[in-house]
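Subject: Sanity check before I submit

Could someone independently write out the structure tokens for this chain? I want to compare against mine line by line before I put it in a report. The sequence has 203 residues.
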Amino acid sequence: MVDNQRMDVPELLESASLLVPEETAAGNDVTVQDIWDYLAHDEWEIALDLLEEFADGRSLPLAFWEKLAEAAEQLHLERSAAWCHWRCSEIRNGVIRAELTLRPAGEGRRTTPIPGAGVLRPMWDIGHLSPTGERAVSIAALWVENMPVLAPGGQATVRLVPLTPSHWTHVQPGQQITMHEDRNVAGIAVILQVHRPAATPRR
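---
Independent answer below. Compare away.
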């Protein structure tokens, strides 16, 4: 992670905003200049939220998300910090978006909702076999979009960050994969988008 030990929240947010192209506007037509105005009035949380919105669906550098994560931690915004660290992981390891349907509570091992903020690292059957011909699973962390949790039997769009990106190079949109927390199928996912790891400069 970048060395931000001597940077406070406004400095971190100002530094992050400089990494956003000036012509960029968020979905509500807020511009980078608007963010600077919020920073000038010490509206740090609003500026942080807007910077996260700016980055939605855009390719911004790893340093952008590292600075936002550090700012969110200093502001004690746990979910925001978790999201920014998650986006750092997406840049390093790639991300697969998928539509996931969990098995109902009576049909699978899980009887409680899965947390949405990237703490679960289930196993996934993505078509690999072991040298002996048995199913070989791969691990990927799971973030549920726009929902704090996903209950058994529920359906949501999820983001998967592979633990070992090289295992996932063959997956394609439209492919069906299965989620496992033990030997049984915990859920079925259909891949929507695949984004490979970004080339990040060596430190």
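---
OP: Matches mine. For the report I'm noting this point. Strands lie at 95-102, 114-115, 117-120, 123-129, 135-144, 149-150, 155-162, 176-180, 185-195.
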